[in-house]
Amino acid sequence: MDLGLHHKVIIVTGGTKGIGGAISKAIAAEGGIAVFIARSNEEGISLQNEMNTCNQEAFFIQADLTKQGNCEKVVAMAVEKYGRIDGLVNNAGRNDNVGLEMGTIDRFTTSLNENLLHYYEMAHYCLPELKKTKGSILNISSKVALTGQGGTSGYAAAKGAQLALTREWATELLPFGIRVNAILPAEVMTPLYRNWLHSFKDPIKKQREIEQNIPLGKRMTTAEEIASLAVFLISEKSAHTTGQFLSPDGGYVHLDRSIT
Ligand code: NAP
Protein backbone atom coordinates (compact mmCIF):
# COMPACT_ATOMS: atom_id res chain seq x y z
CA MET A 1 0.00 0.00 0.00
CA ASP A 2 1.33 3.44 -0.92
CA LEU A 3 0.56 5.67 2.06
CA GLY A 4 0.97 8.79 -0.04
CA LEU A 5 3.67 10.24 2.19
CA HIS A 6 6.00 11.15 -0.70
CA HIS A 7 7.59 14.55 -0.04
CA LYS A 8 5.36 15.08 3.02
CA VAL A 9 7.21 16.84 5.82
CA ILE A 10 6.64 15.20 9.20
CA ILE A 11 8.19 16.44 12.44
CA VAL A 12 9.06 13.74 14.99
CA THR A 13 10.07 14.85 18.48
CA GLY A 14 12.56 12.47 20.05
CA GLY A 15 13.04 10.94 16.63
CA THR A 16 16.57 9.59 16.88
CA LYS A 17 16.10 6.33 18.77
CA GLY A 18 13.54 4.00 20.31
CA ILE A 19 9.95 4.48 19.15
CA GLY A 20 10.62 7.93 17.65
CA GLY A 21 13.65 6.62 15.76
CA ALA A 22 11.57 3.81 14.25
CA ILE A 23 8.89 6.35 13.24
CA SER A 24 11.48 8.63 11.58
CA LYS A 25 12.84 5.65 9.62
CA ALA A 26 9.34 4.50 8.62
CA ILE A 27 8.47 7.99 7.33
CA ALA A 28 11.67 8.10 5.28
CA ALA A 29 11.09 4.57 3.95
CA GLU A 30 7.66 5.76 2.71
CA GLY A 31 9.30 8.58 0.77
CA GLY A 32 8.38 11.22 3.35
CA ILE A 33 10.73 13.80 4.82
CA ALA A 34 11.42 13.14 8.49
CA VAL A 35 12.38 16.24 10.47
CA PHE A 36 13.50 14.76 13.76
CA ILE A 37 14.52 16.41 16.97
CA ALA A 38 16.59 15.24 19.93
CA ARG A 39 19.28 16.49 22.30
CA SER A 40 22.18 14.25 21.28
CA ASN A 41 23.85 15.75 18.22
CA GLU A 42 25.95 12.66 17.59
CA GLU A 43 22.98 10.26 17.40
CA GLY A 44 20.97 12.71 15.30
CA ILE A 45 23.67 13.31 12.72
CA SER A 46 24.41 9.61 12.56
CA LEU A 47 20.74 8.75 11.78
CA GLN A 48 20.51 11.59 9.26
CA ASN A 49 23.62 10.28 7.47
CA GLU A 50 22.24 6.73 7.54
CA MET A 51 19.04 7.90 5.84
CA ASN A 52 20.84 10.12 3.32
CA THR A 53 23.04 7.15 2.36
CA CYS A 54 19.82 5.33 1.38
CA ASN A 55 18.79 8.35 -0.74
CA GLN A 56 16.20 9.34 1.85
CA GLU A 57 15.58 12.97 2.72
CA ALA A 58 15.88 13.69 6.43
CA PHE A 59 16.67 16.70 8.56
CA PHE A 60 17.96 16.45 12.12
CA ILE A 61 17.55 19.40 14.47
CA GLN A 62 19.44 19.32 17.76
CA ALA A 63 17.33 20.83 20.54
CA ASP A 64 16.14 20.23 24.07
CA LEU A 65 12.39 20.80 23.77
CA THR A 66 12.01 21.55 27.48
CA LYS A 67 14.02 24.76 27.10
CA GLN A 68 12.04 27.94 26.52
CA GLY A 69 11.82 29.06 22.90
CA ASN A 70 13.14 25.83 21.36
CA CYS A 71 9.79 24.47 20.10
CA GLU A 72 9.11 27.68 18.20
CA LYS A 73 12.66 27.63 16.85
CA VAL A 74 12.60 24.06 15.52
CA VAL A 75 9.25 24.56 13.80
CA ALA A 76 10.58 27.74 12.16
CA MET A 77 13.69 25.84 10.99
CA ALA A 78 11.57 23.09 9.40
CA VAL A 79 9.38 25.65 7.62
CA GLU A 80 12.39 27.63 6.44
CA LYS A 81 13.98 24.50 4.94
CA TYR A 82 10.93 22.83 3.39
CA GLY A 83 8.21 25.51 3.26
CA ARG A 84 5.55 23.23 4.72
CA ILE A 85 4.61 20.84 7.54
CA ASP A 86 2.27 17.92 6.88
CA GLY A 87 2.40 16.15 10.20
CA LEU A 88 3.59 16.26 13.79
CA VAL A 89 4.47 13.24 15.91
CA ASN A 90 4.78 14.26 19.57
CA ASN A 91 6.89 11.51 21.09
CA ALA A 92 9.79 12.76 23.27
CA GLY A 93 9.46 11.87 26.93
CA ARG A 94 10.41 9.44 29.68
CA ASN A 95 8.96 7.63 32.64
CA ASP A 96 10.71 9.44 35.47
CA ASN A 97 9.20 7.91 38.63
CA VAL A 98 8.01 11.06 40.39
CA GLY A 99 5.62 9.40 42.82
CA LEU A 100 3.00 10.83 45.16
CA GLU A 101 4.48 9.88 48.53
CA MET A 102 8.16 10.22 47.63
CA GLY A 103 7.88 13.00 45.03
CA THR A 104 8.06 16.77 45.43
CA ILE A 105 6.10 19.57 43.78
CA ASP A 106 9.27 20.71 42.01
CA ARG A 107 9.96 17.24 40.56
CA PHE A 108 6.29 16.87 39.58
CA THR A 109 6.44 20.21 37.75
CA THR A 110 9.69 19.21 36.04
CA SER A 111 8.08 15.95 34.92
CA LEU A 112 5.17 17.85 33.36
CA ASN A 113 7.66 20.09 31.59
CA GLU A 114 9.60 17.09 30.22
CA ASN A 115 6.56 15.02 29.24
CA LEU A 116 3.66 17.33 28.48
CA LEU A 117 4.28 21.02 27.85
CA HIS A 118 6.27 20.57 24.62
CA TYR A 119 3.42 18.42 23.19
CA TYR A 120 1.19 21.52 23.44
CA GLU A 121 3.89 23.92 22.33
CA MET A 122 4.86 21.90 19.25
CA ALA A 123 1.22 21.57 18.18
CA HIS A 124 0.66 25.29 18.77
CA TYR A 125 3.59 26.35 16.58
CA CYS A 126 2.91 23.74 13.86
CA LEU A 127 -0.76 24.65 13.59
CA PRO A 128 -0.54 27.49 11.02
CA GLU A 129 1.31 25.14 8.63
CA LEU A 130 -0.94 22.14 9.38
CA LYS A 131 -3.97 24.28 8.52
CA LYS A 132 -2.50 24.91 5.06
CA THR A 133 -1.77 21.22 4.39
CA LYS A 134 -4.74 19.68 6.30
CA GLY A 135 -2.03 17.79 8.14
CA SER A 136 -2.33 15.49 11.08
CA ILE A 137 -1.05 15.18 14.65
CA LEU A 138 -0.11 12.00 16.46
CA ASN A 139 0.54 11.94 20.21
CA ILE A 140 2.58 9.07 21.62
CA SER A 141 1.05 8.51 25.04
CA SER A 142 1.32 5.36 27.18
CA LYS A 143 -0.74 2.55 28.66
CA VAL A 144 0.08 4.21 32.01
CA ALA A 145 -2.52 6.86 31.10
CA LEU A 146 -5.20 4.16 31.41
CA THR A 147 -3.79 1.67 33.90
CA GLY A 148 -1.60 3.74 36.21
CA GLN A 149 1.67 2.23 37.34
CA GLY A 150 2.31 3.44 40.87
CA GLY A 151 5.13 5.77 41.85
CA THR A 152 5.00 7.86 38.68
CA SER A 153 2.45 10.67 39.18
CA GLY A 154 4.15 13.19 36.89
CA TYR A 155 4.45 10.79 33.94
CA ALA A 156 0.92 9.42 34.45
CA ALA A 157 -0.52 12.95 34.62
CA ALA A 158 1.33 13.93 31.43
CA LYS A 159 0.31 10.79 29.54
CA GLY A 160 -3.33 11.17 30.64
CA ALA A 161 -3.32 14.82 29.62
CA GLN A 162 -1.97 13.83 26.19
CA LEU A 163 -5.09 11.69 25.70
CA ALA A 164 -7.35 14.54 26.82
CA LEU A 165 -5.57 16.89 24.43
CA THR A 166 -5.93 14.35 21.60
CA ARG A 167 -9.74 14.54 21.91
CA GLU A 168 -9.69 18.29 22.61
CA TRP A 169 -7.53 19.09 19.57
CA ALA A 170 -9.42 16.61 17.35
CA THR A 171 -12.55 18.60 18.19
CA GLU A 172 -11.03 22.08 17.89
CA LEU A 173 -9.34 21.25 14.59
CA LEU A 174 -12.34 19.62 12.84
CA PRO A 175 -13.05 22.81 10.82
CA PHE A 176 -9.54 22.65 9.36
CA GLY A 177 -9.66 18.95 8.45
CA ILE A 178 -6.74 18.28 10.80
CA ARG A 179 -6.90 14.84 12.42
CA VAL A 180 -5.47 14.08 15.86
CA ASN A 181 -4.88 10.59 17.25
CA ALA A 182 -2.90 8.88 20.00
CA ILE A 183 -0.92 5.68 20.28
CA LEU A 184 -0.55 4.03 23.69
CA PRO A 185 2.51 1.77 23.70
CA ALA A 186 2.81 -0.71 26.58
CA GLU A 187 6.06 -2.69 26.58
CA VAL A 188 8.51 -1.78 23.80
CA MET A 189 12.24 -2.53 23.94
CA THR A 190 13.95 0.84 23.46
CA PRO A 191 17.09 2.40 24.96
CA LEU A 192 14.87 3.94 27.67
CA TYR A 193 13.17 0.62 28.45
CA ARG A 194 16.48 -1.25 28.49
CA ASN A 195 17.87 1.20 31.04
CA TRP A 196 14.81 0.64 33.21
CA LEU A 197 15.13 -3.15 32.97
CA HIS A 198 18.74 -2.88 34.10
CA SER A 199 17.60 -1.24 37.33
CA PHE A 200 16.47 -4.77 38.37
CA LYS A 201 18.85 -7.32 39.85
CA ASP A 202 18.07 -9.84 37.10
CA PRO A 203 16.93 -7.90 33.98
CA ILE A 204 16.41 -11.04 31.89
CA LYS A 205 14.17 -12.64 34.53
CA LYS A 206 12.19 -9.40 34.82
CA GLN A 207 11.74 -9.23 31.05
CA ARG A 208 10.50 -12.83 30.94
CA GLU A 209 7.97 -12.09 33.72
CA ILE A 210 6.62 -9.09 31.80
CA GLU A 211 6.45 -11.01 28.52
CA GLN A 212 4.43 -13.80 30.15
CA ASN A 213 1.68 -11.23 30.80
CA ILE A 214 1.42 -10.12 27.17
CA PRO A 215 -1.44 -12.15 25.65
CA LEU A 216 -0.47 -12.15 21.96
CA GLY A 217 2.75 -14.08 21.42
CA LYS A 218 4.11 -13.59 24.96
CA ARG A 219 6.48 -10.98 23.62
CA MET A 220 7.05 -7.26 23.69
CA THR A 221 5.88 -4.97 20.89
CA THR A 222 8.65 -3.86 18.55
CA ALA A 223 9.31 -0.18 17.88
CA GLU A 224 8.79 -0.98 14.17
CA GLU A 225 5.27 -2.27 14.92
CA ILE A 226 4.46 1.01 16.66
CA ALA A 227 5.98 2.91 13.71
CA SER A 228 3.84 1.06 11.14
CA LEU A 229 0.69 2.20 12.92
CA ALA A 230 2.13 5.70 13.34
CA VAL A 231 2.79 6.26 9.63
CA PHE A 232 -0.67 4.93 8.79
CA LEU A 233 -2.29 7.36 11.25
CA ILE A 234 -0.25 10.28 9.90
CA SER A 235 -1.08 9.39 6.29
CA GLU A 236 -4.18 10.17 4.26
CA LYS A 237 -5.00 6.44 4.25
CA SER A 238 -6.51 7.02 7.70
CA ALA A 239 -8.42 10.06 6.47
CA HIS A 240 -11.56 9.36 8.53
CA THR A 241 -9.82 8.45 11.79
CA THR A 242 -9.61 11.16 14.41
CA GLY A 243 -9.74 11.48 18.19
CA GLN A 244 -8.74 7.82 18.57
CA PHE A 245 -6.60 6.07 21.20
CA LEU A 246 -4.89 3.00 19.74
CA SER A 247 -3.15 0.29 21.77
CA PRO A 248 -0.72 -1.76 19.65
CA ASP A 249 0.28 -3.90 22.64
CA GLY A 250 -0.57 -7.55 21.94
CA GLY A 251 -3.75 -7.20 23.99
CA TYR A 252 -1.84 -6.24 27.13
CA VAL A 253 -4.30 -3.58 28.30
CA HIS A 254 -7.64 -4.69 26.87
CA LEU A 255 -7.76 -8.51 26.88
CA ASP A 256 -8.61 -10.72 29.83
CA ARG A 257 -5.20 -12.05 30.74
CA SER A 258 -6.59 -14.73 33.07
CA ILE A 259 -7.75 -16.79 30.08
CA THR A 260 -4.59 -16.67 28.01
P1 NAP B 1 13.86 6.61 24.27
O1 NAP B 1 14.39 5.31 23.82
O2 NAP B 1 14.50 7.26 25.46
O3 NAP B 1 13.83 7.69 23.11
C1 NAP B 1 13.38 8.98 23.42
C2 NAP B 1 13.73 9.96 22.33
O4 NAP B 1 13.35 11.27 22.75
C3 NAP B 1 15.21 10.04 22.03
O5 NAP B 1 15.40 10.35 20.66
C4 NAP B 1 15.67 11.20 22.91
O6 NAP B 1 16.92 11.65 22.41
C5 NAP B 1 14.49 12.17 22.75
N1 NAP B 1 14.24 13.15 23.80
C6 NAP B 1 13.96 12.90 25.11
N2 NAP B 1 13.78 14.04 25.77
C7 NAP B 1 13.95 15.05 24.87
C8 NAP B 1 13.89 16.46 24.96
N3 NAP B 1 13.68 17.09 26.12
N4 NAP B 1 14.11 17.20 23.84
C9 NAP B 1 14.35 16.58 22.66
N5 NAP B 1 14.40 15.25 22.52
C10 NAP B 1 14.22 14.49 23.62
O7 NAP B 1 12.28 6.46 24.65
P2 NAP B 1 11.13 5.49 24.06
O8 NAP B 1 11.02 4.32 24.95
O9 NAP B 1 11.30 5.31 22.60
O10 NAP B 1 9.84 6.39 24.35
C11 NAP B 1 9.28 7.26 23.38
C12 NAP B 1 7.89 7.65 23.81
O11 NAP B 1 7.08 6.47 23.97
C13 NAP B 1 7.83 8.39 25.15
O12 NAP B 1 6.86 9.40 25.10
C14 NAP B 1 7.41 7.29 26.12
O13 NAP B 1 6.73 7.79 27.23
C15 NAP B 1 6.48 6.47 25.24
N6 NAP B 1 6.30 5.10 25.72
C16 NAP B 1 7.30 4.17 25.62
C17 NAP B 1 7.08 2.87 26.09
C18 NAP B 1 8.12 1.79 25.99
O14 NAP B 1 7.82 0.65 26.35
N7 NAP B 1 9.31 2.05 25.49
C19 NAP B 1 5.86 2.54 26.67
C20 NAP B 1 4.86 3.52 26.76
C21 NAP B 1 5.09 4.79 26.27
P3 NAP B 1 17.97 12.50 23.32
O15 NAP B 1 18.15 11.72 24.58
O16 NAP B 1 19.18 12.62 22.47
O17 NAP B 1 17.30 13.81 23.54
- Major β-sheet profile: 7 strands, parallel
Q: How far do the termini sit from each other?
A: 33 Å
Classify the helix fraction into a percent range.
Answer: 40-55%
Rg value: 18 Å
- Average pLDDT over all residues: 97
- Give the topology string: H per helix, E per strand: EHEHEHEHEHHEHHHE
Specify the overall morphology: globular
Largest sheet, order of strands side by side? 3-2-1-4-5-6-7
Give me the CATH fold name.
Rossmann fold
- Structural class, from helix and strand content? alpha/beta
**Corresponding CATH architecture:** 3-Layer(aba) Sandwich
Taken as a percent bin, the fraction of beta residues is 5-15%
Quick one: CATH superfamily? NAD(P)-binding Rossmann-like Domain
3D architecture notes:
Belongs to the short-chain dehydrogenases/reductases (SDR) family. Keywords: Oxidoreductase. One of its GO terms (molecular function) is oxidoreductase activity. Pfam families: adh_short_C2. InterPro entries: NAD(P)-bd_dom_sf (IPR036291), SDR_fam (IPR002347). This protein is an alpha/beta fold and 260 residues long. The chain has one domain: NAD(P)-binding Rossmann-like Domain (Rossmann fold), CATH 3.40.50.720. The protein contains 9 helices and 7 strands, in the order βαβαβαβαβααβαααβ. It has helices at residues 18-29, 41-53, 70-82, 105-133, 144-147, 153-172, 191-197, 203-212, 223-234, and strands at residues 9-13, 33-38, 58-62, 87-90, 136-140, 179-183, 245-246. A 7-stranded parallel β-sheet has the order 3-2-1-4-5-6-7, sandwiched between helices. It is globular and about 50 Å long. It starts with 8 loop residues before the first strand and ends in a 14-residue tail after the last strand. The mean pLDDT is 97.
